[in-house]
From TrEMBL:
<comment type="similarity">
    <text>Belongs to the uricase family.</text>
</comment>
<feature type="binding site">
    <location>
        <position position="61"/>
    </location>
    <ligand>
        <name>5-hydroxyisourate</name>
    </ligand>
</feature>
<feature type="binding site">
    <location>
        <position position="179"/>
    </location>
    <ligand>
        <name>5-hydroxyisourate</name>
    </ligand>
</feature>
<dbReference type="GO" id="GO:0005777">
    <property type="term" value="C:peroxisome"/>
</dbReference>
<feature type="active site" description="Charge relay system">
    <location>
        <position position="60"/>
    </location>
</feature>
<keyword id="KW-0560">Oxidoreductase</keyword>
<feature type="active site" description="Charge relay system">
    <location>
        <position position="14"/>
    </location>
</feature>
<dbReference type="GO" id="GO:0006145">
    <property type="term" value="P:purine nucleobase catabolic process"/>
</dbReference>
<feature type="binding site">
    <location>
        <position position="60"/>
    </location>
    <ligand>
        <name>urate</name>
    </ligand>
</feature>
<dbReference type="GO" id="GO:0019628">
    <property type="term" value="P:urate catabolic process"/>
</dbReference>
<feature type="binding site">
    <location>
        <position position="61"/>
    </location>
    <ligand>
        <name>urate</name>
    </ligand>
</feature>
<feature type="binding site">
    <location>
        <position position="252"/>
    </location>
    <ligand>
        <name>5-hydroxyisourate</name>
    </ligand>
</feature>
<feature type="binding site">
    <location>
        <position position="162"/>
    </location>
    <ligand>
        <name>urate</name>
    </ligand>
</feature>
<feature type="binding site">
    <location>
        <position position="60"/>
    </location>
    <ligand>
        <name>5-hydroxyisourate</name>
    </ligand>
</feature>
<feature type="binding site">
    <location>
        <position position="225"/>
    </location>
    <ligand>
        <name>urate</name>
    </ligand>
</feature>
<feature type="active site" description="Charge relay system">
    <location>
        <position position="254"/>
    </location>
</feature>
<feature type="binding site">
    <location>
        <position position="225"/>
    </location>
    <ligand>
        <name>5-hydroxyisourate</name>
    </ligand>
</feature>
């Protein structure tokens, strides 16, 4: 081994572990959870890199198997933060040379089918491309948890404007007193775990973050994407003391007014009804909003 180089940091494990669990409350009334799991381990693995010594390497196949074993034994798979914590704690407790277990879980959205106005006991449909996600890092004496949602596509046909922005010699954009506002929401939030993982209402927080995001999007008379996302995060922090900060990334999916003047058709003001969606470029607005005085 050359003395001129050293291993600065390492992590390894298993990615894209697909886990589906049927939760059988009764023989007929079931729930379904579908997850994609990644587990990366950190610790005393330097000699595997520098000396080709595998004696401490927990095989990634073992990591994969453990995802299924813990899912089978756990009563908390529907709450992905709890399942992620159980996974991470298993690796840290079982293998003394593992210092940190980093768990990332993506949950797909299955919604119960209604038949004749009644929820079917064991039939579901895939409810869009939206996902619930969590990132859990467990060490011997600490746990950090970030959760959120991605892929929530929303659109409003009015109640959004963008005016009085900065102009320079490169500006061609015109003021828009009313416009379509469409975005695919990415919202992440860090959770204060000091009260203990078992005491944190993860599902209530997630549903509250999602509902607040949708409510503000719908009701806010939006002056800009920036102003709307700030209002969303402000309300989340007010409603959920367990949330330390909120990160939003909202791409502004443009729908430009189509020029129908050559065809003598009105398409402005109250008669503006035809738009051209633009997929090749979009605005991209991000922000992290936290409690005043807290370290970022």
């Amino acid at each position: 081994m050359s003395s001129a180089v050293e291993l600065k940091r390492q992590a390894y494990g298993k990615a894209k572990v697909r886990v589906t669990k049927a939760i059988r409350h009764t023989p007929q009334w079931n729930d379904i959870v579908e997850l994609t799991v990644q587990v990366l381990l950190e610790g005393d693995f330097e000699e595997a890199y520098t000396e080709a010594d595998n004696s401490k390497v927990v095989p990634t196949d073992t990591v994969k198997n453990t995802c299924y074993i813990i899912a089978k034994k756990s009563n908390h798979v529907q709450t992905i933060e709890r399942y992620g914590y159980e996974l991470g704690k298993h690796f840290v407790d079982k293998y003394p040379h593992v210092t940190h277990a980093n768990v990332h879980i993506v949950q797909l959205r299955w919604t119960r089918i209604n038949v004749n106005g009644e929820p079917h006991p064991h039939s579901f449909y895939r409810d869009g491309s939206e996902t619930r996600e969590t990132w859990v890092t467990v060490s011997a004496n600490d746990v950090s948890i970030k959760s959120g949602l991605e892929g929530l596509l929303v659109l409003k046909t009015t109640g959004s404007s963008f005016t009085n922005f900065h102009h320079c010699e490169n500006t061609t954009l015109q003021d828009a007193d009313d416009r379509i506002f469409s975005t695919t929401v990415k919202a992440h939030y860090n959770i204060d775990t000091s009260i203990g993982v078992e005491n944190i209402p993860f599902d209530r927080i997630f549903e509250g973050v999602r509902k607040t995001t949708l409510d503000v999007f719908a009701h806010d008379d939006s002056a800009s994407v920036q102003a709307t996302m700030y209002r969303m995060a402000e309300l989340i922090l007010k409603r959920f003391p367990e949330v330390r900060d909120v990160y939003y990334a909202l791409p502004n999916s443009h729908h430009f007014t189509t020029n129908l003047a050559p065809f003598n058709l009105p398409n402005a003001g109250q008669e503006m009804t035809i738009f051209s969606p633009v997929t090749d470029f979009s605005g991209y607005i991000t922000a992290t909003i936290g409690r005043r005085g807290n370290k970022f």
